[in-house]
Amino acid sequence: MKTAFKNKNILITGGVGSVGKEIINQILKFDPKIVRILDIDESREFELEHDLEQTLSANDFDKLRFFLGDIRDKERLKRAIEDINIIFHTAALKHVQSCEYNPFEAVKTNILGLQNLINVSIENEVEKVIFTSTDKAANPTNTMGATKLLGERLMISANYYKGKRKTIFSSVRFGNVLGSRGSVIPLWINQIKNGGPVTMTDLTMTRFVMSMKRAVELLFKSTQIAKGSEVFIFKMPAIRLNDLVEVVIEETAPKYKFNPRDIKIKTIGLKSGEKYYEELMTEEEVTRSLETEDMFIVFPQLKELVNKEYFRELGATEVHSSDYNSHKMSLLNKEEIKKVLYESKALS
Predict the structure, then answer these.
(1) Residue 231 placed within a domain
(2) What is the pTM of this model?
(3) Other CB atoms within 10 Å distance of the CB of residue 110
(4) What is the C-alpha to C-alpha distance for residues 184 and 192, in angstroms, rounded to an integer?
(5) Nearest CA to 9 among 84, 88, 90, 65?
């Protein structure tokens, strides 16, 4: 890892988001030359710059460059990508319901914006571009998941038509990152602070979850080993939403001088585009995948781009099961959920 990022110029799109900020915090440990942060949110970028100036060493802060811009704007991307070696692409419209009501806005950012990034990266011969996807891309039932699936396919095809240019394009597929901006936990905490009720969609829903720190550690590992066209899917535990909300209430209510038993839970039903469970990958994807201790590696259907032997040399083996559905996996118990929440600083 030290050699993968040392003296490299790094670009993080969507850099003021939760994953983007964690990338900044962790990437500086590996002594990059420059870290550029591209985001469209002026206020949050200003706040992040101010916060980092207070918390980072002068040497680390001097490595940061803050760019205001939209990935839909190809000309702005050209300036942001000049002399960049590695790109972490986290910019996206990510809220399921917002994308359902504004589908073409999701297309413009998650698909057309990504294609802009791909084209400019090829033109500048960036070394590696890593696209952050979601488990909702497996058998998508909503607009956001569909755009992320197509994003993965765009990344695969970029390796096919880049010609002699050296850029490597790969994707990583996250689950629900606990403590991330826009997650349900801050909403629940605010509701508990006001005495409840806590609203949730359905008590039986299950989800794959991971801590922010773990997500970025595996993102870096994927970047290091990527050869192009892979979709890296992190192995992560599953939880039942009912257990999660009960842990949040039990841990949070006393902080605001409430008895956890007095905080009611109100079920409001599934929102547009939501489903009861998630899948890490489809049965079809299993047939063209390998696995390691901490991740699955899905290879493209385009046979010309498959390089399984390289990953076998790294210890990857055939996938042992085809059932990676959050409803059917063993679930974390409440004590295990509590541990992950505190590791993620979601309750601090």
Answers:
(1) yes
(2) 0.92
(3) 24
(4) 12
(5) 84
Q: Which domain holds residue 215?
A: 2-175+209-236+281-322
Alpha helices, H only, the chain: 2-5, 18-27, 42-55, 58-61, 74-81, 96-101, 103-106, 113-123, 143-161, 184-193, 212-225, 241-252, 283-286, 308-313, 334-343
Q: How many domains does the chain divide into?
A: 1
Quick one: tokens of 257?
């001088």
Burial zone of 28 (CB within 10 Å; 0-12 exposed, 13-18 middle, 19+ buried): buried
CB neighbours of residue 131 within 10 Å: 26
- Please report, for the domain that includes residue 311, its CATH number: 3.40.50.720
- Alpha-carbon gap, residue 176 to 173, rounded angstroms: 10
Residues involved in catalysis: 136
pLDDT at 342: 87
**pLDDT profile of the chain (348 residues), mean per 10:** 89 94 95 97 96 96 97 97 97 93 98 98 97 93 96 96 94 85 83 93 88 89 95 92 94 94 91 84 91 94 84 92 80 91 81
Decide if 250 is inside a domain.
no
Please report whether residue 271 resides in a domain. Answer: no
Are 45 and 16 spatial neighbours (Cβ–Cβ below 8 Å)?
yes
Q: Distance between CA atoms of 30 and 27, rounded to whole angstroms?
A: 6
* Tokens of residue 240, six digits: 């039942």
In a domain, 202, yes or no: no
Task: Take residue 38 and report the two structure tokens written for it.
Answer: 């591209």
Q: How far apart are CA 338 and CA 347, in angstroms?
A: 9
CA 21 to chain centre: 12
